[in-house]
Amino acid sequence: MPDRLKILLQHMLPKQRLTTLAGRIAGAEGGAWTTRLIHWFVRTYAVDMSEAANSDVASYKSFNDFFTRPLKVGSRPIATADFVCPVDGAISQFGTIDDDQIVQAKGHRFTTTDLVGGDAALAGQLRHGAFANLYLSPKDYHRLHMPCDGTLTRMIHVPGKFFSVNPTTARGVPNLFARNERVVCVFASPEHGPFVMVLVGATIVGSIATVWHGVVNRKRTRTPSEWTYTDQDIVLKKGAEMGRFLLGSTVVMLFQQGAITFNEDWAPERPVRLGERMGDSAA
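Predicted structure:
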């Protein structure tokens, strides 16, 4: 199917209804029906179950349980670098934030202000900083981990659209990551300054969850919601789990100017794995 037709279908599909339906199916404990669905998914997307802590497909009560399965202990060693890759997936784009502009794909940019839900003060802390957009395909491990040590300060749920975030859509839908539903997680680091992890939803992504809150978007609304954590001491270490997608999507990371020098082996479309060296302090 030509890319232009795929993009046209993205605009025409009832994406929110499909997402709601997918969420209900994924959360259902359907016995043999659920097992058949998981078997089909494993075959279709060539999921490597040998890495899962539990490789028995028939033991998962729901598709969500399967999709957010943990890995075997030690299967993703954490590099000694200052920053590590927080997911299994592929690099969409990465590099320097041009004033407040982030590259989505060739010919498409969006602003940090739009991405974080319109908070110009937060975006201002990241001007001329660095970004990395990492795409999680359906076959990937779908828990998200910390790229470095961080203390949680804020979380913002930004309602939005439900476009797919696959590479074809990223090339064809302007402002994609700043249009879709997303959860903005703001951290402070004494070594690296403020940094942000944006968990971007997509078509049939039933839910986005964090380890400190649980499912963030259980009830979808039309207005942003915000939580502050400055009165708490939520500290997550490098490599620790911080959240998960219930079906695949994208994480966008934002760092302040001078915080990170990216791994010289990184390149757009390159596969990446949780725990590998993402970069080191630029200082």
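Summary: The first strand starts at residue 83 and ends at 84.
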